[in-house]
Specification:
By secondary structure, the chain is of the alpha/beta class. The protein has 4 domains: about 1-135; about 150-320, P-loop containing nucleotide triphosphate hydrolases (Rossmann fold, 3-Layer(aba) Sandwich), CATH 3.40.50; about 325-405; about 505-608. It is about 55% helix and about 10% strand. It is built from 22 helices and 15 strands. A 5-stranded parallel β-sheet has the order 2-3-4-1-5, sandwiched between helices. Helix 21 links the parallel strand 9 (about 505) and strand 10 (about 520-525). Helix 2 runs parallel beside helix 5, helix 14 runs parallel beside helix 16 (about 380-410) and helix 15 (about 365-375) runs antiparallel to helix 16. It is globular, with a radius of gyration of 28 Å. The two termini are about 40 Å apart. This is ToMV susceptible protein tm-2. It holds the Pfam family NB-ARC. Keywords: ATP-binding, Leucine-rich repeat, Nucleotide-binding, Plant defense, Repeat. Belongs to the disease resistance NB-LRR family.
Amino acid sequence: MEAEAAAIAVINKTVEIAGNLILETGSRFYHLQENISWIERQMRTLQSYLNDAESKRSTSHEAANLIINVRDLAQDVEDILDIYLPEIESHNTKGSFQFFKHASCILCFGVKANSFALEIEKIKRRAAEIEDSRRNIGITADSNAIAGAATDADLWDRRKLFLRAPHESKIVGRQNILQKLKEEILSEDKGNRIISVVGPAGVGKTTVAKRVYQKTKNEFDVSATVYVSQEPRPEELLLDIAKQVELSEDKIKEDLVRNLYLLLQEKRFLIFLDDVWDFKTWDSLSNILLTNPRNGSRIIVTSRYKDVGRYIGGESSLISLDLLGEKEGKELFFDLIMATSKEALVPELRDIGEKIMERCGGLPLAIVLVVGLLRARERSIHAWDQVLESISQGVEKTCLEILALSYQDLPTELKPLFLYFGMFPADHEIFVSDLLSAWVMEKLIKVDGPRMQENIVEANIDKFISRNLIQVSTTRLDGRVRSVRIHDLLHSLCIQLAEDSNFFCTLNKLKTVGTSATVRRITCNSNEHADENFGVPRKIRSLLCFGGSHEVLLNILKRNASDLRFLRNLIIEIEGGKAIHLPIEIANLSGLSYLKLTAYLASGILQA
């Protein structure tokens, strides 16, 4: 992921620089333009290999190394651009007449341009080695392979088994939604109707839809339930439906699509499409399923994405599932705990159980999984305490297998933007303005002009909201999103993926692995504490600090400000109105583009 982020940043940066240079007249920038254009082309080429390399990294040491090499190369190119181009462009701004008027300018420009060219030659040799390596291990461009395909297939198999299992799962806090869904299905309206149940992964969409499907399917001539998955094959889905609605083998062999269409025209059907990911899947099925518009058939769709549900059935078709409140979460947790034993819980166990339930964050899937852990252990304070201590690792890991599918489905350019949410503390109110500054300053998005910046950032925020990866926290008076939050489990996913790929590093992680030259972003929250010997990597672009570590970090910045020439984004948030002394040396952060301080400033830079 850091390889993708670095490549994206370099591509956007080179496009911007090349655009400026092309406007120049004369030939003095010709070789510079040529090198910049080569960088852009090469980064796009290397980026095109990353999907295939990611899909093979778990089983191929060579593929994992290739990703690391691409990341390191892209980061080094970014460093070279940040070192040389500002100085070269400073000569550019003087204009041709002023430039040639002074011999010192010509000499200085020549030295810088020559040094830049030498660095690019080194990069070209490394890029050639990467090309040789990827050919040797069979990495191809623009692959649609998805990492962990075998694991995902196993997960989908379990989902299919659950989907058609006869048992009924415990449902709490969804009575109104269950009733509404049932009324929609059994409505006397003779027109065909689609009901789209949407919500985050693990919130219980399938459980709710399946319950109503099972209760109402006998009211229809034929029925079918199909798990769609992230990479469906329409022919297999149609074959699955055909078998369930009892289309004969002869008809299937003769012409599956035509004969299924004719059968559904004559029958009043109920079809349940579980976990639809995109528009294309629906488009491949709709011509067969939307047959007789007046026979009273019903289609239930579940999707993680509101825009998919809206596309399939329209705005009026949407039924949204949110996280459970504290009351409903406790009810589900303790109902499941007591389902296998009528023995009352002692107060101590109930207290531990409530703490465990709180860590599940209102996500039904997490609650069900943790209850499974508790059922496998004796009902003792010691055993439950062990689960409480390990829940952030074991249960989250299992949930993340499902949640990660939402991440894998993101377009390449959105993945580093999503990981940025993990740099803020869990359950933190994340302001769109902070994301705008970070994404723009690090060149993770390409924009032209301040107004365009805001529009593009808001459009990306809307994409994450539509995919249920983040939730709106506050809005502006004009209805635009002001701040967002991310669920704890998705936040954990961000941190896990970011640390695995070196996209960013938490303070605790950095202290265990030592200062790394490849670290570009560091975040620390109120639960982490730095010591005076902590060294900030010199090439970091973003540093975010929330709470307890601010005093030590400010002292570190005071000592090292002149060395942090690449630092672009600095956010320090101190809760509780604490006073801080901001060192005047922060003014020496020459590359700083965005500084946010949320605290009472006792003294320092504001007096300078």
